[in-house]
Design brief:
Shape: globular
CATH class: Alpha Beta
Helix content: 25-40%
Structural class: alpha+beta
CATH architecture: 3-Layer(aba) Sandwich
Strand order of the largest sheet: 1-2-3-4-5-6-8-7
Low-confidence stretches: 1-34
Number of strands: 8
CATH topology: Aminopeptidase
Number of helices: 7
CATH superfamily: Gcn5-related N-acetyltransferase (GNAT)
Length: 221
């Protein structure tokens, strides 16, 4: 049965308390006391912290040419600390409101940041759906990290949040992104013309989706 995020409580998982702890973090130096950590074989996922800025900005800067063709246009201050803190505030607001959840992806072996995965546009009511997003830094691309991280996120989507449908969109030229979605069992559902503004221009996108019943059937299979 689908559950509304507000009022939903499970030990170790986010809610309004976590969003408030991020807000407190932005005013001081204390890290959130109880952030959800999703652990996979080689990786773990947790919400971003203010103390991650240096690692995040370095990875994004060294991967800029690799990432820009697939992302919205970067602002002039995209990697500045103040811009990063604004991003954290938006993440905290989205989590408090139950409309989005962002995670950084780290390697277990050395705690190195390798990329990020996120859930956005969480819809309740008759839709019960959300959108998957992800990125990997160039040094860590095509090593299976994002596929593993996104796979670890699926129980959070369908069990913890109780959603019915997970959607994703990618550029037709982005074969690597399509590969991630197909490995996760997503179904290609169509083409949306001039769907998103990427790197300053409107682009067609391929649309994919994974249903709760598809995921549960895969787990049994």
């Amino acid at each position: 049965m689908a559950r509304s995020w507000r009022g939903f409580s499970k030990p170790g998982w986010p809610g309004e308390g976590w969003g408030n702890s991020v807000a407190g973090l932005l005013r001081g130096s204390q890290e959130p006391a109880a952030t959800p950590v999703l652990s996979a074989e080689r990786l773990y996922l947790r919400p971003p912290r203010a103390s991650d800025w240096e690692a995040w900005s370095h990875l994004r800067e060294t991967s800029r040419d690799f990432l820009e063709p697939w992302e919205p246009a970067w602002s002039p201050d995209a990697l500045a600390r103040n811009a990063y803190l604004r991003l954290l505030r938006r993440h905290a607001r989205d989590m408090r409101e139950g409309t989005g959840f962002a995670f950084f992806v780290f390697r277990h072996a050395d705690d190195r940041l390798v990329g990020g995965v996120s859930l956005g546009n969480v819809q309740r009511g008759v839709a019960q759906s959300c959108c998957l997003g992800y990125w990997a830094g160039l040094p860590h691309a095509r090593q299976g990290h994002i596929t593993a991280a996104a796979r670890r996120l699926l129980p959070f989507v369908f069990d913890t949040l109780g959603l019915h449908r997970l959607e994703a969109a990618c550029l037709p030229a982005n074969a690597a992104s399509q590969g991630v979605l197909r490995k996760l069992g997503f179904t290609h559902e169509g083409l949306a013309r001039r769907y998103l503004r990427i790197n300053g221009e409107w682009h067609d996108h391929l649309l994919f989706a994974l249903l709760e019943e598809d995921w549960r059937r895969q787990r049994r299979g």
